Structures are given as C-alpha cells and as structure tokens.
Amino acid sequence: MSLVKHSARTVRKPCRSCGSSELYWAHDTDRAYHKHCDRCNVTGGFVLIEKDGSRHDCRITSGEPEDSMPDMDPDGPTEDDEKEVSPVAAPVSPDVQQALGMLVGALTPQVDRAEIEAMVKEAVANVVFPTRTVVERANGARIELSGATHHKLGDVITSLMAGEHVLMVGPAGTGKSTIAEQAAEALGLKSYSISLSPQTPASQVLGYMQATGDYVPSLFREAYEHGGVFHFDEMDNAHPSVLAVVNAALANGHMAFPDQMVKRHPDFRAVASANTYGRGATRSYVGRQAIDAATLDRFSVETIEVDETLENELCHSTGLETDLVERVLFFVRRLRANAEAHSMPVVISPRASVGMCRLLRAGRSWESAVEARVRRGMGDTEWNKLSG
Ligand SMILES: Nc1ncnc2c1ncn2[C@@H]1O[C@H](COP(=O)(O)OP(=O)(O)OP(=O)(O)O)[C@@H](O)[C@H]1O
Ligand SMILES: [Mg+2]
C-alpha cells in the first residue's frame, strides 16, 4: 500500500463509521479506483489516514470487507474539506473606521510609566489613612486611644512606663500638650496640667493654708499623693522659684506640702513641655527662661517636631475639600522651610495650617485666611522672604 497525504488539515467531516475527525485525506496509489490529483500529482483512490500516516482502519479491525470501508470515498474530500477557513472581513465604512481609530487612541495610554508612578505617589502621599493607637500594658490590658496621635506618643508612653519623667521640647503647636493627655489615658492614669508663667506662684503647685488653718490642695498635690500624670506646660516660662519646687518634688520620694509631708505615689509621673531645651531665650521664643541643670536632669528629653501625617489628618478633619487642604499644606510647608532656611524668628505651626483650613471652610477668601493665620501684619520685606 502506498499512501500520499493529500492535505495537511484534518478532515472537517468525521469518519462515517467511527466518528473520528483526527484524520487526514490521502491517496492510496495501489487502489483499484484511480483518480489523478493535480495538486499532489499522484493517481489513486482517496482514503483516510491517521496522524502518524498509517491507514485509518476502524472497519478493517472489526472484520468488515475492505471495499465496504466508508473512508474509501472515490470522490475524496468534499469542497468543504478543502476550503481554507479564514476570518471574513465585513466591509467597514469610513465613519466606523474613524470611530474605531478614536476608540483605540483613547484606550492607548498617553502617559509613560514614570508619569503614572509620580501621579500615584502624589495621590497616595496625601491620602489620610485612619489610624488606631492601641497600647498594651505590662499586665496585658489593652487601651485603644481615640483620634489621631503624634508619632512620638509611643516613645513618651514607654519612658513613663519605665518610671522616667519626660520633658517634651518642640516648636509651638506640635502637639506636646495633647501627647501629655493621651499618655495619661494610655497608662490609665488621671491627667493633670498647669501652664507655667513667670507669675505662677509656688502655691499653685504646693497648695496653701487659709487664714482659718485649712489647707487648700493643689492639682499637683492630688497627683503626687494619689497618682496621675502631671503636666508642667510651658516649663521654660516658669519662675525659677517654682522650678525649685518642681525639682524638690521629683528629687525625693516625699515632699513637704504646707500642711504635712506627703509620700510620692508610685503611679505619679511628671511630664513637662517647653519650646526650648532650657538654655534660655531663642530668636523665636524670646521670653523663655533658662532651666537649672538639676531640674533638667530629672527628665528624659523627647524632641517633638511637626508630625506631617498628624497635620494632614487634622487639616482634612476640618471638612475642607481635599484640593484646598492640599493647597494649604503645600503653602504652609513652603513657608516653614523658608523660615528655617532664612533663620527667621517666626513660628508656622500646625495651628496655622488647621486654622487656615477652618477659615477657608467657613467661606473666608484665601488672602484673608493667609493674613489671619500666617502673615499677621508682617511687613512686605519679611513676607516676601518668607513666602518667596
Ligand atoms: N493628636 C491630636 N489630635 C487632635 N488634635 C491635636 C492633636 N495634636 C495636636 N492637636 C491640636 O493641635 C493644636 C496644638 O496642639 P497642642 O496644644 O497639643 O500643641 P503644643 O505643642 O502643646 O503647643 P504649644 O507649644 O503652643 O503649647 C491644638 O489645637 C490641638 O487640639
Ligand atoms: Mg502646650
């Protein structure tokens, strides 16, 4: 038997006997019924062959006479079997072609990868992710603080838990007083605070005796005797005589109050905040007092700078529309950088950015909000330097 493969394509009509369509047409040049195929230039009857080139024999193996095999079709492949299958291109009008062109153009990215990355980074940088601050105490108790927190809060809490008193130093409005309150909440202790000034008398710390002989306790006495976090706000603004009292209270495990000696409670902690490191006035904080070394020595010092993530959160929480909040933040941060670069004695705190957002939200114009919260009557020369 000599078989010549007629077509590289499998048959379209399956074998009439077994239904297989994984077959090919071939010429059997030995077959009685001869027919010349111009394409293959051979003469022979059409038969079906397998992939491997062997004769398809579904009927041979079942014992039927070879001449009755269904694949021995004298006519070979039908027209259908021979037709190449190709996609039919429907005629397309010029209008449709133009519309398709525009659609493809619109779907093709018009920006490159670097541009897309820059856009995503910018968008993500201004996203305000909701934050949760959970404090786990040594005894396993967990306290979740509500609201936003400064990223230094954790350090302050850890120091207080370790038995340290903490002095927070940083520019105005960076969140020092808020950290003191949140730290007390995290430790499960009551929070007390006094704001010190050169006029604050020692009696405001120690309490005093009335003419009747009754003792009037102070908040400090309450915290010292019963435990709590006591915040000496603006410590670098205090009169030295008051700082001497603070020093004495922290130096010893007991303290002479006007009515009696009092033992310091083990859960008493002091936090203090200041705009300077206690070495006296600076260009921005002109009225500040130097704090004596012995008092400073009682405290661990934490520097509290502007936390820009917290500032983002506070500005967005004003409810001002996002685009304007971003404009305010960009503007305020540029002023801050300029003030630093030119060593200008101005403070552009988060109070300025949050305040501007509030004013704009209330309907004030950009110019009036800038004047009220940032410029504040500054002369042209200074303002040009700051805002340039
Ligand atoms: N974590 C916070 N959550 C909500 N508001 C905050 C937070 N931190 C600061 N603020 C707000 O920012 C402003 C300044 O905060 P705070 O008074 O704590 O700063 P400060 O560093 O103590 O300022 P100063 O040096 O002027 O005493 C306040 O209006 C306060 O309510
Ligand atoms: Mg404060």
From TrEMBL:
<dbReference type="InterPro" id="IPR011704">
    <property type="entry name" value="ATPase_dyneun-rel_AAA"/>
</dbReference>
<dbReference type="InterPro" id="IPR027417">
    <property type="entry name" value="P-loop_NTPase"/>
</dbReference>
<dbReference type="Pfam" id="PF07728">
    <property type="entry name" value="AAA_5"/>
</dbReference>
<protein>
    <submittedName>
        <fullName>AAA family ATPase</fullName>
    </submittedName>
</protein>
<dbReference type="InterPro" id="IPR003593">
    <property type="entry name" value="AAA+_ATPase"/>
</dbReference>
<feature type="compositionally biased region" description="Acidic residues">
    <location>
        <begin position="64"/>
        <end position="83"/>
    </location>
</feature>
<dbReference type="InterPro" id="IPR050764">
    <property type="entry name" value="CbbQ/NirQ/NorQ/GpvN"/>
</dbReference>
<feature type="region of interest" description="Disordered">
    <location>
        <begin position="57"/>
        <end position="85"/>
    </location>
</feature>
<feature type="domain" description="AAA+ ATPase">
    <location>
        <begin position="162"/>
        <end position="309"/>
    </location>
</feature>
